[in-house]
Amino acid sequence: MISRFFKYIRDDEVDVSERVYVLNIHITTLLILLSMFARLAVRGMVSDTLICLVSGLGYAIVAITAFKLKRKGIGAIINCACLSNLFFPLVFFYCNGIHGDAPLWFIYGLMTISTITTGAVRKVLYFFAYFSAVVCYMVAVYYPNTLHVLPSRDAYLISIVTLVLLGTSVISTLILQNKLFEKENARVQEQNKEIEGLIASQNRFFSSMSHEIRTPINTIIGLNEMILREDISDEIAEDAVNIRAASKMLLNTINDILDMSKFQAGDMKLLVENYNTGSMLSDLVGMLWIKAKEKNLELKINVAPDLPSELRGDEVRIKQILMNILNNAIKYTKQGYVSLSVECDKKEDGNVNMIYSVEDTGMGIKKEDIPYLFTAFKRVDEGNTKHIEGTGLGLSIVKQFLDLMGGTVKVNSVYTKGSTFVIEIPQKIASEKELGEYDFEKRHNLKHRSNYKQMIEAPDAKLLVVDDNESNLLVVKKLLRETKIQIDTAKSGPQALQMTLDKKYDLIFMDHLMPDMDGIECFNAIRNQLGGLCRETSIVVLTANAGEENRGLYAKTGFNGYLVKPVSGADLEQELYRQLPKSLMRITDAEAVEGGESITLMTEGQKKSKVIITTDSGADLPLELYEKYDIAVFSLSVKTGEGVFKDLIEIDTPGILKYLENKENIAEAVEPTVQEFETFFAEQLLKANDVIYIATSSKIEGSSYPIAKEASKSFDNVYVLDSMNFSGGQGLVALMACRMAEAGMGAADIIPRLEIRYQLVKSSIMIDNLEYLARMQRVGTAYSNLMKALLLRPVTVMKEGRLVRSGFEFGSKERVWRTYIKNCISSCKPDDTVIIVNHVGFNKKDIEWIRNEIEKRFTFKKIIFQQSSPSIAMGCGPGSFGISFVEDREV
Ligand code: ADP
Description:
Helices cover 51% and strands 19% of the residues. It is of the alpha/beta class. Strands 1, 2, 3, 4, 5, 6, 7 and 15 form an eight-stranded mixed sheet that branches. It has a six-stranded mixed sheet with strand order 25-24-23-28-26-27, sandwiched between helices. The chain has a five-stranded parallel sheet with strand order 10-9-11-12-13, sandwiched between helices. Strand 12 (538-543), helix 17 and strand 13 form a beta-alpha-beta unit. Helix 7 (152-229) runs antiparallel to helix 8 and helix 9 (277-294) packs across helix 13 (440-447). The longest helix is centred in the N-terminal third of the chain and has 78 residues, at 152-229. Bound molecules: adenosine-5'-diphosphate.
């Protein structure tokens, strides 16, 4: 029986928590029964002996029943509850209260709860255990007669026996439990190893599957290309083109699945090497322009000349990221253009942030779909995209590569209008030399053409192709037929070695995975071959083994080039062009340059700036300043009886004031819509990578802030800032932002600075014409009449973004103005750079008078007078004027 018990406890098949419970039942029952014998021996009393007997047996019976009914959880709860709330109080009252062994049982009860229960139940049991202990102690304090008092000797003896029993049981339980957990730990580690092994074999499977699929696709694509080169009927040509598209699609899907499985196994690694920025970009452009051309889309390329000419990073993966985004841009655009802009942000420490923006005029992405774009297998807007082929893996892979590289991707999109993806990738600068103006148009044409055109001819050159697969040999031979190069083939490494003893080849294409001797062994053998004639010959690996670890391996081995199957005729000729001595070849198609028309290189004027500052027409700045700083202004609208008019575009301030002179007429501001803001932001994003919008204080009624904020959710690069001001104050915050942008700061630097510095902007307004405001129902008529009678004019200042009445000025117009100017400007130490005075309907004389008053007391370098925009003028009424300046203090 005992051996059965230990066998059960050691049985790894049984859940650990179940074994711990069984262990506890045995030990606790034994303890209670042993305690019973101790009491019997010490005192010979029936009552507490009986308590122990009933409790011990009860404990065991509950557990046995629970096991029988397969209700171990409930059994454990009843056991713990009885131990702490029944057995403990009985022992307490029958055995001398705190002077007996009850407190030891209480602690044991808590330990049992910790051992055999979990979760919320455990917490409830703790609570009740403490509660019964407190009740017992309290009853003992206030009703000492309820305690059964034992002679001191008996109490000590029982306590000692219980202490030894419980102590021993606690120690043995802990030791056993530890052993169980150690064993469990070892088992989990074993399992983890097994899982790792499984993942590794899954990866091996995926990579060999990729290899196995690439080999036949190589034959399909290669031979299909040969069909396309023939003089065939349109119908056959169309079929062959479809075969080519389907094979490439299959290949892309395989590549994506392979990448995804590597990411999931945490096995994706980058291969960091120096690469040439220009050729990386021209490879990209070369691959793209055909696709753009096929869809009749314009392809705009804009590459900043200050890019470092050489960078250090994983070129292949960066190309993959950009290809994915650019392919999508072309795929999801029916008409218009796709543009790629490349800029860089050089850091002090020899690093550079490469910024790639891909913009299209396609179908756009719904705001609510943007968060799911990067989820694997998720295709958004399925109604519109289901007819466009894709797996929903591309962007997820892009995101994971960017995470691996420490890069970011941001999406700005307006549904039905187009999307912009901005990708930033940190890279090391390998050469400080700048790229300069790069002629992509010329370079891409040499490499990539939709229809085959022979590029070179090399009848005197000798090529050896080594591959165990005969179809592959056939494909290479056929694809290079037009070049007239002399081709020999070898079906194995040893055969190749035989041939290199007899003939000096100018180039060798070598497969990697071959039986007997693989490509790397064969490479090494050729390089060290005694009497070999090809020890110096360029050897290019031509393999179906894609993946960065293989690239690394081939580079380390010393191969002169790397071609991945399936290869096209153009790929092979390109490699010949790269590897063969120039004396052995003749370029037959230097200007194989049809079709450059779909690429447009952007001119300087079209280049995007880093950030553009925008605001609304209520910022009340002079036109020259808007123009000087290139501030884009969102026009607010005013509604009159005659219709809705756009501020400063369709209506000016004198116009609206004149209209309102007629006491019958009223006007009101029109709330802009989210859509209007989306369009506005989308237009600005054509000009800059980031857009900052300075809004009127959100605490002022009718502020555009919440609407602009909502619209900005469609874009990752639009930042809406609450200026906590309005009119000239808002304008000053916009100017602060412009100065920061001028100093070369990006949005990420400007926003936090502005969020502190806007506090320094002081602005206020003095309302002159309350009658007018009463008519607009902005103040009560009685209030307006009273103010007029008392010759009072209210002054309102901006405080924490709110317009609050700071007081009233009393007396004649001049007196009121003078006091307002004096009080307002001397309320703090002003920065003397600039002060803005916005006014509603002032004439030259008024303006000169105010200028005089300001100059008499203060020394501002520049005083800007600006008529308020119609929407502001309408809100304050004629005769009002406001003062805005920046306080001179550190924040
Ligand atoms: P897919 O294989 O479906 O193209 P991706 O992961 O590349 O998978 O893209 C996910 C989804 O994002 C696409 O199904 C498409 O709905 C949307 N999408 C990506 N790029 C664009 C774009 N430039 N314009 C519109 N929608 C896009």
